[in-house]
Amino acid sequence: MDAAQGLLEELPDGLVVIGPDARVQIVNAEAERCTGIDREQLIGRDVRTALPLQDTTGRDWWVLTDPFTGLATRSGHRERLLVLPGEHEVLVTARYVRSGRSAPVDRVLLQLRDTEARRRLENDHAGLISTVAHELRSPLTSVKGFTSTLLRRWERLTDAQKRLMLQTVEADADRVTRLIAELLDISRMDAGRLEVKRQVVDLEALVRGQVERAVATGQPAERFRVAIASPLPEVWADPDRLEQVLSNLVGNAVRHGAGQIDISVTADPDGDGVAVVIDDEGEGIPAEHLGVVFTKFWRGSRRGGTGLGLYVVRGLVEAHGGRITVGASPAGGARFRFTLPAAVPEFVQLPGTPLLDRRQVHLPLPEFVDERASSRTPGRTTTGRTTTASASERRC
Fold first, then answer.
1. How confident is the model at residue 47 (pLDDT cuts 50, 70, 90)?
2. Which pTM value belongs to this model?
3. Cα–Cα distance between 198 and 237 in angstroms, integer?
4. How far, in Å, CA of 384 to CA of 391, rounded?
5. Left (φ > 0), alpha (ψ -120 to 50) or beta: where does 79 sit?
6. Nearest to residue 39, comparing CAs of 55, 49, 50, 52?
7. Alpha-carbon torsion (110, 113, 115, 121), positive or negative
8. Could you give the dihedral angle defined by the CA atoms of residues 193, 194, 200 and 201, in that order, rounded to the nearest 10 degrees?
9. Which domains does the chain carry?
10. Greatest extent of the chain over all pairs of C-alpha atoms, in Å
11. Would you say residue 351 has pLDDT above 70?
C-alpha cells in the first residue's frame, strides 16, 4: 500500500476516491493543492458537504449529477469547470466504477485540475485572434484603398501609377493568403492531422528558386551564397511544404539578418539524410531566447509579423521526420539548421520485399500485358511498364 500511495502522490492531477456511502476515502497531494482544502478535512466525510461543488450558475453539482442514486447506466462526466466556496475554480472529471452493467456505484473517482492550463489556452486563443485581426487589417485596408482609387480615378491615373497600385494589391493579397495558410497549418498540427505528400524532391532547385525570388524582389544577388554538396542522398518529401519551410527561413534571414546569407545543403553527418543550413550576419538571437524561438507568437526584439512562421516551420519539418535547431552562425548572426531523413516510403516498395535504398539498389520494373489492347487487336499483344515511383505517388 505504501508503494501505491507513493504513486498516487506523484500523479500530476488531483485524485479523490469516494466510496459507495459518499464518504471520501483517498485524497492525494495535488487534490489538496487544487481545492485548497487539507485532506484531513476531507477523508471520512460526506463528499457532498466536504466538497460542495457548484456549476458556474451556482447550482449544486452533486444534486445535478446524483452519482449514488441516479441513473444506473451512467459511467461518469466529462471535464467541466466547477466552483468551490470562495469562487475557487477547478476542472473536474468524474468516473463511476460499477461491478457490472447497471450495478450500483462502488466508487466515484474525481480527477481535479486547476484552471491555469485553461487560462493559458484562453490567452493563446485571445492572442491569436488579436494577432490575426491586426495582420489582416493592414493589407485589407491597403487593398480597399487602392481598388477604390482605381475605380474612381482610372482615367486620370497613368499606367505607371496603375501598375504600382495593382502590384501593391497583389502583394497584400499574397500576405493574407500566407496568413490563412499558416492558420490552417497550425490547426492541423494542433489536431494531429497535418499530412505530407511525399515524392522525390530536388533540394538544389528548391533552394536556388528561393534565392531567385528574393533577387526578383530587389535583393542583390551577391548577398546570397549557395553551396550544394554532391552527391546528395535521395530525399522523399512534400515539395510544397518544403518550399514553405525554405521560404520562411530565407525570408527571415533577408528581413532580420544583415550582410551575407549562406545556404548550404549537405549529407547529414549524424544520419542518412540531408542537412540544410541558413546563416546570416545580422545581430543574431539572444541566447536566452533560443529555447522559445519555435513557440507560438515569438517575435524576438523586433515587432511585426504574426510570430507563427517558425512554429509552422518546426511542425512541417517534424512532420517529415526531421529536426530543426537554431543557434549562432560563425559570422555572428543566426543559424537555422534542419534535417530531412532519406528513406523510401512504403508505398513504393514491392510487396514482400524489405525496405531498400534506391541509391544502391535499382528495382526492376515488372512487365504487364495490356489486355484491352490485345482484345482490340486479335493476335496482337501490347506490353508496357509500370509508371515511375513519383507518378505513382501523384496518383495516390
1. very high
2. 0.56
3. 4
4. 15
5. beta
6. 50
7. negative
8. 180
9. 2-114 (3.30.450.20), 126-191 (1.10.287.130), 199-340 (3.30.565.10), 364-396 (no CATH)
10. 94
11. no
